[in-house]
Amino acid sequence: MMKNIILKKDLKIMIKKIISDSGANVLHLDDASFENIPLTIHVDGTDYQDDASLSVNELIEALHQNDEKTSTACPSIAQWQKAFEGADEIYVITITSVLSGSYNSAVQAASLYREDHPETKIHVIDSLSAGPEMELIIDKLKELIAAGLNFDEICAKINAYKEKTHLNFALESLDNLAKNGRISPAVAKVAKMLKIRIIGRPDDGKLTPIGKARGAKKTISYLIKDMEEHGFSNGRVIIAHILNEEGANNLKQTILDKHPEASVEIRNARGLCTYYAQKGGLMVGYEA
Questions:
Q1: What is the pLDDT of residues 215-259, one digit of tens each?
Q2: In the structure, what pLDDT confidence band is assigned to residue 1 with cuts at 50, 70 and 90?
Q3: Which residues, other chains included, contact 200 with Cβ-Cβ below 8 Å and sequence gap of 6+?
Q4: How far apart are alpha carbons 84 and 35 in whole angstroms?
């Protein structure tokens, strides 16, 4: 694992580390000390660890075949504490605390760890979001660390940057929501039959529907319109998709047609985002 190492004036090696739970879809980070802490997805008696060993296709098939309620479990305090070991400055980012206990677990772990390591500095960020918006924040942390800023400067700048990032999502399948009692099975069936996508964004950390669109083209138009209404112009965009590369590419091209100076990247979603956004889903993180 590569590490961000800075030599202090007294020649003590300073190790700065970024840690995220698996809600970010990030397994590794080039030229930085980074660790992914997996959440667990429970489906029909089987536990799926959201790490590099997970087959997203296998998870999707298991969710499709299952008719019972499913659930997720956040990382334990011990998992977070183990990840903290050996670092002097630690920057933690978690999936929204409204969906998961990951943030609270990380905060408790940081408090306990500081009791035995009072010299260690830890900043825990509740993303109030998921997926590609979390990745934008992780990349910004990497940039700030590489710039040689001190801990307080990095904390202030990353908190300010977080206010300028956003997330939108479009759900093609509502099956998992229906199985978990979030919506009526009849509504999910009708939406699928009519090719209706549910579009939403986080509202104080709660992933909230804001509208619906029928068909892929109208979905893309709705997503971009909402992005623009929230300040998007020519910033950076990360699109995460769940077995919907065509939809992601069409969204990317439409964004670039309207905003040619934007930077748009496409990612495959990992386990947790697949669990929530489901097959065909799109998640869009962007800078305003």
A1: 999 999 999 999 999 999 999 999 999 999 999 999 999 999 999
A2: very low
A3: 168, 169, 171, 207, 208, 209, 210, 211
A4: 9
List residues bridging with 213 in a β-sheet: 197
Q: How far apart are CA 201 and CA 209, in angstroms?
A: 7
Q: How many CA atoms lie within 13 A of 112 on its CB side?
A: 15
The CATH class of the 165-287 domain is: alpha beta
Contacts of 91 (CB under 8 A, 6+ apart): 16, 17, 18, 19, 123, 125, 141, 145, 154, 158
pLDDT over 60 (residue 7): no
pLDDT exceeding 90 applies to what percent of the chain? 83
Burial of 227 (0-12, 13-18, 19+ CB in 10 A): buried
4-39+74-162 folds as Rossmann fold (3.40.50)
240 strand-pairing partners: 267, 283
The residue ranges of every structural domain in the chain are 4-39+74-162, 165-287
